[in-house]
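FAQ

Q: What does a record look like?
A: Structure on top, sequence underneath. For example:
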């Protein structure tokens, strides 16, 4: 494996990354690491041109990029989502694409619960009014008791399952809808299966989104689906901004049909400060931070480097997500 090159790619819209963990692990394995900040697909293509493997956080991996990297065995994605990668074309070109789906389960489920509680107890507006010198328990708007309420989970993967356990611990009943998960798995976790998204939305006091961004789920929370939600319900999104039609959300929050919403993700990131959503007192926003802790950041670095090393050794990286399109990659050891 000596002399092989791994390239770490990021984009200028994110804070500068410390690649020291990846570099140390790759050095110990006999490979070298180069890093690049790429603002366009052309820059990403140039950065990965000589790479034997790539570590990709937020840069888009398009046809232009994939066709420019003839030696690349694997692309390791810095997270769970993979909507920014052409998986089928990567497989056709013999490139395994792997993600890291399990590095921040605790952090994201904690964050979702924290946002839910912030909405229920009006923490952000109460803090703001107190800072203004107002001593008014009504300054947080419409507050609610959580015990006895129902949390509806759209999606029932690792994070949603962990959140379900935490939510039940504070007295919430939990329901989930996921067309790709058998209802018996939900029942085993003491979660009530919903027959449809409509049933989930219409019977939940809190709704938390935990599904991938796909053509099927883009804008799944829109004017029609929001009308199904209980008056006074609250919405949490720690998944992908494209799941919500933001104009419809704005109207629902402004009218009071929804008592509040908390978003760690939005359709455009970094957030557009001109968005009318940001002027609403019943909206809580955090900057795509749900994944982050000092521990999760270190774990992500270790797992990304480890997956790249697997590919350089001729092994299929853990959590490769495009094996169905091409179950055999030419660089795999027999």
């Amino acid at each position: 494996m000596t002399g092989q090159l791994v390239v770490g790619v990021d984009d200028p819209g994110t804070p500068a990354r410390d690649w020291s963990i990846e570099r140390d692990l790759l050095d110990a394995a006999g490979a070298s690491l180069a890093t690049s900040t790429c603002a366009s697909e052309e820059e990403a293509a140039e950065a990965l041109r000589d790479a034997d493997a790539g570590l990709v956080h937020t840069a888009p991996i398009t046809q232009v990029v994939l066709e420019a990297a003839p030696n690349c065995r694997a692309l390791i994605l810095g997270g769970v989502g993979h909507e920014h990668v052409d998986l089928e074309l990567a497989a056709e070109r013999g490139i395994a694409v792997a993600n890291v789906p399990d590095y921040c389960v605790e952090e994201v489920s904690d964050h979702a619960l924290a946002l839910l509680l912030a909405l229920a107890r009006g923490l952000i507006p109460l803090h703001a009014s107190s800072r203004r010198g107002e001593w008014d328990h009504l300054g947080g708007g419409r507050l609610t008791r959580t015990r006895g309420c129902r949390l509806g989970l759209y999606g029932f993967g690792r994070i949603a399952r962990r959140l379900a356990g935490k939510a039940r611990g504070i007295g919430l009943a939990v329901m989930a809808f996921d067309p790709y998960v058998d209802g018996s798995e939900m029942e085993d976790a003491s979660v009530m299966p919903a027959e449809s998204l409509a049933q989930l939305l219409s019977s939940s006091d809190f709704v938390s989104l935990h599904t991938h961004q796909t053509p099927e789920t883009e804008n799944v929370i829109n004017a029609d689906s929001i009308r199904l939600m209980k008056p006074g319900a609250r919405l949490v999104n720690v998944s992908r901004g494209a799941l919500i039609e933001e104009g419809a959300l704005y109207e629902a929050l402004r009218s009071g049909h929804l008592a509040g919403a908390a978003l760690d993700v939005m359709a455009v990131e970094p957030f557009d400060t001109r968005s009318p959503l940001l002027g609403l007192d019943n909206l809580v926003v955090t900057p795509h931070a749900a994944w982050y802790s000092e521990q999760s950041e270190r774990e992500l670095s270790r797992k990304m480097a480890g997956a790249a090393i697997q590919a350089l050794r001729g092994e299929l990286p853990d959590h490769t997500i495009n094996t169905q399109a091409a179950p055999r990659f030419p660089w795999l050891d027999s």
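Q: Is there anything notable about this one?
A: Residues 294-312 form the longest helix (19 residues).
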